[in-house]
Amino acid sequence: MRELVYYVAVSLDGYIAGPGGEFDAFPVEGDHMAAQNERFSDAIPTVIADAMGIKRTGTMFDTVVMGWNTYAVGLPVGMTSPYQHLKQVVFSRTRTESDVPGEHPNLKVTDEDPVEVVRRLKSEPGQSIWLCGGGQLATQLAGEIDRLVLKRSPVLFGDGIPLFAPGTYQPSAFNEVSTTAFGSGVVISEYARRQLSQDPN
Question: Where is the Bacterial bifunctional deaminase-reductase C-terminal domain (predicted)?
């Protein structure tokens, strides 16, 4: 079965973006970039990957799910289909596909229950599903997350959008798969959901 992977940059104080959704404080230069771009090339916006000459392998993700606010970050610069190489699912209770400029066959805006949608996606053949953000959607999908990949950056935001928004979900245990510290100060840690048979308690 396909995995739902929450792959995201996060500050030392637990924010994935500033109060207005800004994320320009995260370092985009340093020795961590080559490593993350090699493994997670599928998670780079299409136009940026093309401009940088980064080849997408298609072996990590073939689908991305995100909330409307995460999707809308690119609209002011004309990025109406940020991940054209992936199947894109945008969740919103108030927006529809009529709010998306242009026509994008591989982008769907839906008010369906995110859990039901993700469970349906998991049952289909394909690569992993990338949970792009934001914190509210991550909280809704907390029980469906199979893998966490956190790019912890050596910055403090003070306020903003948390990794998980306050909410109610069952406590979940994860096993550390790997942690790599880079000279840039960025630490990439990967965790897999602990299966019941692995839980010593």
Answer: 4-187
Segment 143-190, tens digit of pLDDT: 999 999 999 999 999 999 999 999 878 888 999 999 999 999 999 999
Q: Return the biggest CA–CA distance within the chain.
A: 52
Report yes or no: 15 and 160 within 8 Å, Cβ to Cβ.
yes
* Amino acid identity, position 152: R
pTM over 0.85: yes
- Give the CATH H-level superfamily of domain 4-32+60-166: Dihydrofolate Reductase, subunit A (3.40.430.10)
Q: Are 62 and 124 in contact (CB under 8 A)?
A: no
Residues 6+ apart with CB under 8 A from 25: 11, 18, 153, 155, 157
Eight-class DSSP state of 118: H
Return the domain boundaries, the chain. Answer: 4-32+60-166
Query: Long-range CB contacts (< 8 A, 24+ apart) of 7-10?
Result: 7/40, 7/43, 7/130, 7/131, 7/132, 7/149, 7/151, 8/131, 8/132, 8/133, 8/149, 8/150, 8/151, 8/163, 9/151, 9/153, 10/150, 10/151, 10/152, 10/153, 10/163
